[in-house]
Amino acid sequence: MQLLCLADRDPAESLPALDLLPHEVRTSPLSLRVPDTMPSRFDAVLIDGTLDARRARTACQALAGTTQTPRVVILPEVALTALTADWGVSELLLPGASPAEVESRLRLLERGSAADAPVAEVQAAGVVIDESNFIARVHGRTLDLTYKEFELLHFLAAHPGRVFTREQLLSDVWGTDYFGGTRTVDVHVRRLRAKLGEHEGLISTVRGVGYGFARERDYDDD
């Protein structure tokens, strides 16, 4: 499984069993806002509440409003009385949980989400984004995209007609912890347009503002 762990330290310090399991774990600071599209790329999101249960609760509630990805909070036993339904979590793990327990809970979550969740797909102006399989197509043609190009196209296609500044795209696609400049947005837009080919006009430049996707005055969808 691919896991996203929101934590302010090495996840293995909060849940040692993770080091003994074969899952891929990506860590993002608990204090930073997670881009809305990021959790859908993972099988589950772990929220570390072992250092600060209050901040963990805030993170859990924020995620509950933006993603259907299962959310698992890690809490010490002394903080369990603070855990209520309004946290919006799918599962709870104690720091001392054994590898077998962690594995079984994660697998149950995986099966449940696969059975209950609808097919994750975004469609706009001839572009189809299959989130589950990381496939993007334009009028039936599969695009050969890098991970970040896929993320950028996914975000734009999910908001057709809207215009975003480079700063907004950098924050929502690359994340608030990215230290590069807005120039990287221009580079990725240029690459995306090249891969869209004859449909490059789907991504329009709005002078003095940023970029828009499938804007009516710029693109006439057949």
Automatic annotation (TrEMBL):
One of its GO terms (biological process) is regulation of DNA-templated transcription. Residues 117-215 bind DNA. GO terms for cellular component: cytosol; protein-DNA complex. Keywords: Activator, DNA-binding, Phosphoprotein, Transcription, Transcription regulation, Two-component regulatory system. Gene3D superfamilies: 3.40.50.2300, Winged helix-like DNA-binding domain superfamily/Winged helix DNA-binding domain. CDD domains: trans_reg_C. PANTHER family: REGULATOR OF RPOS (PTHR48111), TRANSCRIPTIONAL REGULATORY PROTEIN GLNR (PTHR48111:SF16). This is Winged-helix domain-containing protein.
